[in-house]
Each structure stands twice: as C-alpha cells, then as structure tokens.
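Running this now, will post back.
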Amino acid sequence: MAEFDFDAARRWARLDPQKTLARRGDEELPFVNVGLVGGQGLLLDTCVYIDQMQDRSPQVLDDLVAQRQVNHSTVAIQELMHTVGALNPSDRRTARVVAEIGRQIRAMPPHRIFSPDMEVLGRAALLSGILCRLQGYEKDGRLRALHDCMLFLQAQKLGLVVLTANVGDYDMLLQLIPTGRALFYRRKGLEN
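Update: finished.
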C-alpha cells in the first residue's frame, strides 16, 4: 500500500487564501449550452442523478450526457446509498424512490465507475477543511464540502469535468484550484 505524502499535501495547500471567497457572476462561469457538443469526459455530481430522477434536468443537460463519455464516482454512489438509508421505510413513497435509485446505480457501467485514491481522499479532506473555514460552513455543509472536494479532485486527476448544478460550492473550488474543471447547469425551470 502506498504511503500518503503529508508534506506534499501541505505544500500543495499553499493555495489557501486567508479571506472568504465570493461567488462570481454566471457570465464568468462555464454553463451547459445548446452549442456545447465535444469535449472532455464527464464525472457526474450526485445532483445530476437526483435531477434526472425528479425530472428537473433540462433537455440541454440530457443531450450533453447522451453525447459525452459519462463517468461515475463511488462518491456519488455513496451519497445515493445514504439517501436510501435515510428514507423512512413506512413512507409509501420510499419503495418507489429506492427502486429508482437502484435503477440509476445498476445502469452505471462498471468500467466507468471510479474510486478516489488515497491522494485524492487526503487532499480532498484538506481542501474541504480550507473551504469550510473560509466559507464558515457548519455541520451539514462540512460533509457536503468533503464530497464535493473528492469529486472535484477525482475529476481533475482523471482528466474529467465535473457536471453539476452546485454553482456556489464548485465556483469556490475553481477559484482555489483554477486547473480543475466544472461545467454547470440550471435545473429545469431555472434556466436563464
């Protein structure tokens, strides 16, 4: 088993500004649009699966997913499975939701599912700590930030683009690590 390089991770973390970051305007960020066809493969954020299951994904997003190489992360699987565990079994809607999540996960081709390695996990924890401190995230925001950082750094390491509706958090990550890639979309009804 490889050793985690603590010192290299600390040197890498010199990207750490000492001030709160501000969300940039949409005009400064890359959003999915009708003319967008070719490009890097995608790593889907968990919100993509949820939006597709809830029929909140815009047609332009569905078209992009159909045209590009789509990759999946065990981080998204973990978040989806957390939802399965958190749902109330006595709620009559739970069985339908669990079945849909199962369908989504079973549809992921095994050769397109990637797990973050030790370097990504260690650096993501460091990066999420920086993000939580800078942005003042409390308990609920901390776990979300950790998952976002894992996806972001995993995509960077694999040469992929994270596809997400989470503009606020991923904009902050792009400001901290400009070499990372994210592509944003607006949920159906919220476009433009």
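Strands lie at 42-44, 70-73, 113-114, 161-164, 182-184. More later if anyone needs it.
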